[in-house]
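cron nightly-structures :: item 1 of 1
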Amino acid sequence: MRERIVEAASKEIRRRGLRFTMGELAKQLGISTKTIYSIFPSKDELIHALLNKAISELVAKEQEILNHPEYSTEDKLKKCLILVPVDFQFIKMSLIIELQRYYPKQWQMLDQFLNHQWDSIIALFRDGTEQGLFRPFNTAIFIDLYVGGFYRLIEETSDRQNSGTLLENLQDLTDILLSGILSKSG
């Protein structure tokens, strides 16, 4: 039942954002709100469970990418930098703003993950530098730029006409950080 509720909440978030109610969720599942509250005492705890699931999925996907024998170091790096949980791939950046504004504890959990889960990426930087794929660079600055860029996308999304999805924005950010802005011929 717990997993059914989490799945339904995930669908509801994709459909309506974080503004769904536990009553609407119960109706969609054909169960009572009392049943939901017996498993998740609050909506905050349900959102926390969704984020835990997403973070676990990211860690598993990252390991899958890192262990893939046919991916080059560069491929692994690009794929790891644009990792997004399946349920989050097509969400608008405004949902991240909602999370930050209305669920500060859950935002803090995501923020900690974003700022501290870099060991695998640093290892790829080191491997790529040793292989001659990357020039030596300050990895801490790269990480700060990536995380700062992500936060800037969140802050400014309402000012942009086409803010895109989380996946699209991370792809653009990663491409600029890894390839720069110079054309291939320039």
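cron nightly-structures :: done
The chain has a mean pLDDT of 88.
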